[in-house]
Write the C-alpha cells for this entry.
Amino acid sequence: MTTSLSLMLSLRVLSCLLTTTSQSLMLFFRVLSCVLTTTSQSLMLSLRVLSCVLTTTSQSLMLSLRVFSCAITTTSQYLMLSLRVFSCVLTTTSQSLLLSLRVFSCVLTTTYVSNAALASSFMRSHDDLTVSNAVLASPFMRSHDDLTVTNAVLSSPFMRSHDDLTVSNAVLACPFMCSHDDHTVSNAVLMSPFMRSHDVLTVSKAAH
C-alpha cells in the first residue's frame, strides 16, 4: 500500500503460512493471519487482509499449492463500497504433466474501487477497472479465460465446490472466517489461530 500526507495509515500485519506434508498422512501447520486497517482524513477505509500459503506433497502426485486470500472492505463518506477479494495462487505439478495455474477471483460490488483499493503493491490498476483485469495482470497471477473460484480453486482436492459457495457468502462472511457446516480450506484453516491438528488428518478437519 502507498502512503501519502493526506492518508493516515494504521497497519497491523500478520501473514499466514500453512504447510502440509503427507507421506503416510503427516500434517504440519503454521498459521499467521493478517489484518490491515487503513484510516485517512478524506475517506474512512477499513481493509482486512487475510493471506495464506498452502503447500502439499503426496506420494502419487506432487502438488504445490499456494493460496493467497484477502478480504477488503472499503467504506467512504460519499459512497458505501463493499469490496471483498479472494485471491489465490495455485501451482500443481504432477509426474506426467506440469501445470502452473495462478488464480485470482473476486466478488466486487463496485467496479471503480480499483483506483482506491487495488492500486497497491501487489495489485495493478488498469484502464478497464475490473478486479479480474487489474489484479490478474499483476506479476503474481496469470489471466485465464474461464478462471473462477468455483471452477479453479474450489474444485481442487482441498476445496469443495458448491453452487452457493461464493466468496462473499461462504469464505468472507465474517472478519476472521467463521466456521461453516461444510468446511472449505479457507474456512477451516482460519478457524483456529494456531491450527490444531486432529487424528483425522484432512485439511478441513485438521485445521480445527
Summary: Residues 131-136 form the longest helix (6 residues). The chain has five helices and nine strands. The two ends are 32 Å apart (CA to CA). The chain has one domain: 8-206.
